[in-house]
Design a protein that fits this description.
The structure holds two protein chains of two kinds.
Chain A (H helix, E strand, L loop, with lengths): L1 H15 L4 H15 L4 H13 L4 H39 L8 H31 L9 H21 L5 H16 L2
Helix pairs in contact in A: 1-2, 1-4, 2-4, 2-5, 3-4, 5-6, 6-7
Chain B lengths: L1 H16 L4 H15 L5 H13 L4 H45 L2 H28 L4 H19 L6 H19 L11
The chains are: A mainly alpha, B mainly alpha.
């Protein structure tokens, strides 16, 4: 039953995504590929759209996957499931467990999770770059443009940080990448 | 009643005008809820930020639930959370209706070939920022390298091993280390 699957899948995402949207992306990918809801390229497109539209990225992705699988009801169920754990945990902390986050065991676990999540996110980003811009170089027909776009975008993003001491907004980077994609692959 | 609709409308506004996910929302929530509406204090805002970062789920939801509950109890929490989600939901729902048709247009599909490259770089950048903020001690660094290597292998060989298990294993390991070593040597609480 697709609605139940959507609910359970996104409940798990909502329950394990410590550290914001980027930590949730690998989880969402896991769940989405496990159930075979959307293909990897479609999901990557959707991540870009989620970053370029307002609102929490996790909610955007849940809404999209839900709607694509089971219409508006699927979207509602997936969105409800992804926010439910956050909602309940905050209420729980405020109402009964005010001191929970100060507990030394909880603190130790939360500290230990940070490097693990950083590692997962780094691997996710590296894998996506590998898949979309390095692997095409070894494919037939060879695609060097993808690698070139990756280099240009990296220079822009990390260069803007060094030169202007200010991070380029993700939306600006996505807009530039779209222009480059059209320029290279044709109108 | 008036307070609840005010919470609802304010969080609709916050949900509608913040691009880039939860972290981008924190300064805006601070501006509106602390400085303009005076619903919560600066100290409470700090509390929310710490709690939001230590609990799972979208940071925006954590913040909305907290502020809503502070103002008007459980119904306030529901009103604020519903408000912050609503704009995203409507916008993405509309996009989901048209996206497949859009992608059949050649130049849009080509634009997305470029965009997919940007997504990888943005995610890598988020990982690097997390690494920079992390305390560089031996054990966290080992955990980072191991989880990176494991996740990379899982992705490349398409193994069906969810990152959730990596997170659970890391939680278990940090508990065991905590039992052996005692409290983490650095002071708790992150530096900015």
């Amino acid at each position: 039953m697709i609605l139940l699957e959507l609910f359970l899948g996104f409940l798990i995402v909502g329950l394990f995504s410590f550290g914001g949207a980027y930590a949730a992306i690998p989880l969402i990918r896991d769940v989405v590929l496990l159930f075979g809801w959307v293909e990897e390229d479609v999901l990557t497109n959707m991540i870009a759209i989620s970053e370029s539209t307002p609102g929490p990225i996790m909610v955007n992705l849940a809404t999209y996957v839900g709607c694509s699988q089971a219409g508006v009801l699927g979207g509602i169920i997936a969105t409800f499931a992804v926010i439910l754990p956050a909602f309940l945990i905050i209420l729980l902390i405020m109402v009964v467990l005010k001191k929970m986050l100060a507990n030394k065991y909880v603190k130790a676990v939360l500290e230990g999770l940070k490097p693990c999540i950083a590692g997962i996110i780094l691997a996710m980003g590296s894998y996506m770059i590998l898949r979309n811009s390095i692997l095409p170089v070894f494919q037939q027909p060879m695609d060097l443009w993808a690698l070139l776009i990756a280099v240009i975008l990296s220079v822009l993003l990390f260069g803007s940080k060094l030169v202007f001491k200010k991070k380029m907004s993700p939306i600006v980077l996505i807009a530039i990448s779209a222009v480059l994609g059209i320029a290279v692959y044709g109108f | 009643m008036e307070k609840k609709s005010s919470l609802f409308l304010t969080f609709i506004k916050i949900g509608l005008f913040t691009f880039g996910g939860g972290y981008a929302m924190i300064p805006i929530i601070e501006n509106i809820c602390v400085e303009r509406k005076k619903w919560i204090t600066h100290d409470e805002m700090m509390d929310i930020t710490v709690i939001a970062e230590s609990t799972p789920g979208p940071i925006a939801i954590n913040c909305a639930t907290y502020v809503g509950y502070k103002q008007k109890g459980i119904w306030g929490a529901i009103a604020a959370t519903f408000g912050v989600v609503l704009p995203s939901f409507v916008i993405i729902y509309l996009i989901s209706l048209f996206l497949d048709n859009f992608l059949e247009i050649t130049w849009i599909a080509n634009a997305f070939k470029g965009i997919r490259i940007a997504v990888g770089i943005l995610i890598l950048d988020a990982g690097i920022r997390m690494f920079i903020k992390m305390k560089k001690r031996v054990i966290p660094c080992i955990i980072l390298v191991l989880s990176f290597a494991a996740m990379m292998l899982i992705n490349v060989f398409a193994w069906s091993f969810s990152s959730i298990f990596l997170i659970l294993i890391a939680a278990l390991i940090s508990l065991v280390i905590f039992q052996i070593q005692g409290a983490p040597s650095g002071e708790g609480g992150d530096k900015k």
